[in-house]
Amino acid sequence: MEAGFSEMRNELQSRDALWRRIQLECQQLHTELLKISEYKDMQEIQIKHQSSCVQLTEQLENKNTELLLLAQSQEHQREELNKIRNHLYREEQSHRSEQERLKTEISDLTEELHQKEITIATIMEKASLLERQLKMELEIKDKLLAKQQLLDFRYRVIKSENTHLKEMV
What we know:
1 helix; about 100% helix; coiled coil; cytoplasm; Deuterosome assembly protein 1
């Protein structure tokens, strides 16, 4: 019986060793399975990352295209702005020239008006002087006329007296 026990024990030990090897292999397989799973997850992440990179690259290319279009548009707008600035500058220069011309013209007209005012003042002074002279001459002529009328009246009176005296003589 001991031999049977010994045989069974050997058999159990052999099966136990086999069982441990199977468990060890299971653990190794499980570890490999985890590694494979991790590798698969990493590949999926890489694939997602690559897909995301492709999308980001496409978005970046789209943004670059948009930036190029914006740069062209900005350049066009800058050219338009320069044209407008140049036009505005020419208009301002023209306006300044016109203002200077008008200032000069106003200055000339003001000077001419001042000269005319001086001339008018001189004429008014002369007219006032002539008016006084005319008044004086009129007064003199009125006095002379009054004297002449008085003399004329005296002459008639004397003539009439003379005629009367002649008749009496």
